[in-house]
């Protein structure tokens, strides 16, 4: 298939694009380039040099000839969504719909939307399936819920949107993120030797490795249309729905010499949800998600070691999306709607942290 991946130059895209190519698909990318230069281990570019492109400006002519669009492009996590609510809506909701409408007008038949389990929000103690009510507690979660609803209205005989509600991702990528829990705690343990949680770590969080996310996207891409048409799938493994404190303890065990401590009482994080992943496995019996969190922590620790990850890297804008965005805003390289003010390559992010007050718990 001929596939366009928006947001291909982000954390998941850097793994998904080579995965789809290895499976024989022809893959192009479209990306605003917010994180150019934010690379672990040299970051080979999977697509090659090309101009940055804002998905909010895309028209049907650009999507002509594609069989499928995979929409990863977004302001990609909860704290980022708080930066400016309007901007999050502009990128995550309006931008997604713009690409979907252009795709439909161009005759693209499939649209795979990178949704998130964050849309379940404060879902309570029962594991939530795809039909559960949504209680998003952040602008990010709201935009994912609203985008799914609006995309569903575009579904017809010639256009099949599918909503892949990914659990919180982990794993090594050349476009590493350290603002997601497993990657973050592993980096803290390795660079400081101590994980000091600023809460009791009680919230529940489902996790999934980015290679397994890629596997799920690949399966949906090739599945019969009637199975995926206007369907939502939670993407993750039931054995990896864990409490944040379990993750910290697992990391502490996997990183030699590190210690873990917790503060009394709950943190500021309202997100708390257990997710039911049965539909994914029942619909696609041949799809096997393979990674365990423990293996992921070991993979990350090895990648950090090879890269020589330091506390300075950890505290810089390189691997934390919110810091990089704040840096671009401060330098005037993007405006408050995160539209680029220049097509020149952005300078490397190696300057000191601009939001040093971010705490571990805020970054989950
Ligand atoms: N990483 C996770 O834990 C996770 C979990 C659930 C869902 N998701 C979703 O998966 C997708 C990818 O996540 P990620 O972790 O790779 O994020 P990321 O921040 O690493 O990458 C997002 C990419 O989108 C690009 N982008 C942003 N605005 C754009 C625009 N207007 N036009 C074109 N490109 C734009 C950025 O430049 C970046 O390369 C996102 O939609 C995210 O919400 C991620």
| Order of secondary-structure elements | EHEHEHHEEHEEHEEHHEEHEEHHHH
Q: How many domains make up the coordinates? A: 1
Number of helices: 13
Report the C-alpha radius of gyration, rounded. Answer: 19 Å
Question: Into which percentage range does the β-strand content fall?
Answer: 15-25%
Tell me the number of strands: 13
Measured as a percent range, the helix fraction is 25-40%
Sequence stretches where pLDDT stays below 50 over 5 or more residues? 351-364
Ligand kinds:
nicotinamide-adenine-dinucleotide
Q: Kindly state the mean pLDDT as a whole number?
A: 89
CATH architectural name:
3-Layer(aba) Sandwich
Could you please say which CATH topology applies here? Rossmann fold
The main sheet comes to:
6 strands, parallel
CATH C-level label? Alpha Beta
Please identify the structural class as seen in this structure. Answer: alpha/beta
Euclidean distance between termini CA atoms: 35 Å
* Approximate shape: globular
CATH superfamily: NAD(P)-binding Rossmann-like Domain
Can you list the strand order of the major beta sheet? 2-1-3-4-6-10
């Amino acid at each position: 298939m001929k596939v366009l991946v928006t947001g291909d130059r982000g954390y998941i895209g850097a793994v998904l694009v080579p995965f789809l190519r290895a499976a024989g698909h022809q893959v192009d990318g479209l990306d605003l380039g917010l994180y150019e230069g934010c690379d672990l281990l040299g970051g080979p570019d999977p697509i090659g040099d090309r101009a940055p492109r804002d998905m909010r400006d895309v028209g049907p002519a650009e999507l002509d000839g594609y069989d499928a669009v995979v929409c990863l492009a977004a302001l990609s996590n909860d704290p980022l969504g708080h930066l400016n609510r309007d901007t999050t809506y502009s990128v995550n909701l309006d931008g997604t719909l713009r690409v979907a409408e252009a795709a439909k007008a161009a005759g693209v038949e499939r649209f795979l939307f990178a949704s998130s389990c964050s849309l379940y929000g404060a879902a309570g103690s029962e594991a939530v399936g795809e039909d559960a009510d949504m209680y998003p507690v952040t602008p990010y979660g709201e935009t994912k819920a609203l985008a799914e609803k609006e995309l569903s209205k575009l579904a017809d005989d010639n256009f099949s949107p599918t909503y892949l509600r990914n659990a919180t991702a982990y794993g090594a990528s050349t476009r590493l993120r350290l603002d997601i829990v497993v990657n973050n705690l592993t980096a803290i343990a390795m660079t400081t030797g101590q994980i000091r949680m600023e809460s009791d770590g009680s919230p529940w969080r489902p996790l999934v490795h980015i290679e397994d996310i890629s596997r799920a996207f690949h399966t949906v891409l090739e599945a019969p249309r009637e199975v995926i048409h206007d369907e939502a799938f939670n993407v993750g493994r039931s054995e990896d729905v864990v409490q944040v404190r379990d993750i910290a303890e697992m990391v502490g065990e996997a990183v030699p010499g590190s210690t873990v401590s917790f503060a009394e009482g709950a943190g500021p994080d309202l997100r708390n949800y257990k997710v039911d992943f049965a539909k994914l496995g029942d619909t696609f019996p041949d799809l096997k998600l393979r990674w365990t969190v423990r293996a992921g922590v070991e993979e990350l620790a090895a990648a950090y070691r090879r890269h020589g990850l330091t506390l300075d890297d950890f505290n810089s804008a390189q691997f934390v999306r919110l810091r990089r965005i704040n840096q671009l805003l401060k330098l005037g390289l993007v405006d408050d709607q995160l539209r680029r003010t220049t097509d020149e390559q952005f300078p490397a992010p190696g300057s000191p942290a601009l939001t040093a007050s971010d705490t571990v718990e805020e970054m989950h």
